[in-house]
Input
Amino acid sequence: MITQEIKITNRLGLHARPAAMVSQTASNFDCDIKIAKDQVEINAKSIMGVMMLAAEYGSTLRLSFDGKDEKEACQALTKLFANKFNEEI
Amino acid sequence: MFVIKGIPASPGVAIGPAVLLPTADFAVANQHVDATEVKNEIGKFGRAVEKTLADLDANEKKLRETLGGEYANLMSMHKMIVQDPMLKDATVTKIKNEHLSAQAAIFQTLQELAASFDKVSDPFFKERRNDIFDVGKRLVGNLQENKGAFWASIRRPSVLIARDLFPSDTINLQENQIIGFCTDLGGKTSHTAILAQSLKLPAVVALSNAARQVKDGDTVIVDGENGLLIISPDRYTLARYKKTQREIKKAESLLQTINHLPTVTSDGRNFKLMVNFDPRTDTKENKKLITDGLGLLRTEFLYMNIPQPPSELEQYQIYLSTAKKFDMRPVTIRLADLGADKMPDFPLDEFDKDNNPFMGCRGIRLFLKNPDLMRTQLHAIVRTACEVPAQIKIMIPMVSSVEEVRHVRDALNQALAEFAKEGKKPVNKIALGAMIEVPAAAIALDGMIGDIDFLSIGTNDLIQYLIAVDRVNPEVAHMYDPCHPAVLRTIHQIIQTAHQRGRSVSICGEIASDVKMVPMLLGLEVDVLSVPPRMFLRIKNRIRNLNFEACSDTAQAALLASSSEEIRSLVEQMNQDEDS
Output
């Protein structure tokens, strides 16, 4: 199992399009992926779950990956967040 | 015969037998099934998910072709919700453990999901519960295995009467022999209305209780021009509407032949005719129009339903793709007219709730109090102007004094200077203009005209402010009157003042696409009319059939008139003369 802390750096936070990108990317992997914010933990493959986090700019998320392809999954999601979902100049 | 008045949502006239859309019962609270049925119910749920996915796929494709990306993206988000593991797991667990029917299990799951969204304080995420319920209704609709039976039972061209319609229902209407529709709910700018317009289906919405007054098989007329539903019309009314239908058809075929011809009156006076462009509703039909440019790009939509203001890049991408569609023609972008009935969800600086919003902090007033918002929008516009050959024009809404114009000019110059440092420069000089909609700006226009490059009359608000009438207040709404002598005299004065200093004047409000008012506006010597795409060819045809000399005489007579009634009879006379 891998855990990873990530800070939201895109200005709009996890609104609809980034939420969709997170759950789509997560769904490409077999391992279990959870995202936690404050006291709430959700399944990263669920778009409703990701939106429910209402993660705004500057908030911190705790991602955990558990399964065969956990390394690849962690890399893919970390990259997505680091690129700010390709929405800023 | 019985007539109900609603809101015209899509023009045209449809005559035919009524069919009533049965309302799906969505909320079944606690419907239990036998233990032996559990497997069957889970199977039903699985098939409903598959069927819903297929529906959404088909709709996404159709929407991409007709209404463009934004609506199609909504469908792909719905697709993700249907496949969401949270929805699936919770529903299946409820069927297995509590022996709920598939429908009851879906309903309860959705309610729980919606409740967790309600706890979120951010209004953007709260809104998502509507998406969840949209998907839920579709799922439940697909559980009933005989769902297609209703549509299959329609054997002849019919008028659909419904309580409400989703855009995704609307898109399939024509295949099911529907020639027009009426709904109890909805508004003129709802997605359903916009879709009906692009499909050319006559529609009337907001009829409040039509669904209860019509019986299956009643002959009905949908008058999408005037917003009427006529139930069991008498012979005379039926004949009159059949004639109207023939006239509309004739006009449409004629219109196709004038697209490439210039906008010129019969006695040779040229006018410019532009479109009010909305990138969200750009259809194949619209792309065929040959226009003189984009007269009004409203930008408020960029600021709505998002948790934070749109970034420079987001705005730039939309302005760029829009400007490219108009090659070298003018593209007029109005700075966001936020405030009043268009309040964004994100918090604004120094903003308390307005008691009298239409006289409060809106348009340029709100931008001057939130300079970052203005700076970002100006930067996005300048960035666009550096990339495209189109002539970019910026229009300032709700101007009441010359100081406001100067503030924007300074901010624009600053933005230009910043781009110049990067070695970037607009392909064409950016023009800065004002929307004249506050009477003070109209009266003191001569003091402002030197600071602006062009101007546009915002007739909707100008009329409301001139007559001091709140269009939303039913007690006084009838006093809102484009034919009031003060309205025509003010428009005349604005145009004269502008022309003395060589500035052109455009009109982009509702009045510009009112076929009856066009002769009056031409007579007052407006330079540009900007109209919604669906009205474009109709207005062009009208102008081509008018005699400018005659329009001018009528306008002069109207300026001397002392009452709305006199002006209205001049307008009617002008239309009779031309129609014959």
Summary: Residues 38-66 of chain B form the longest helix (29 residues). Chain B has a mean pLDDT of 87. The interface with chain A takes residues 73, 76-77, 80-81, 84-87, 113, 116-117, 120-122, 124-125, 128, 132, 306-308, 311-314 of chain B (CB under 8 Å).
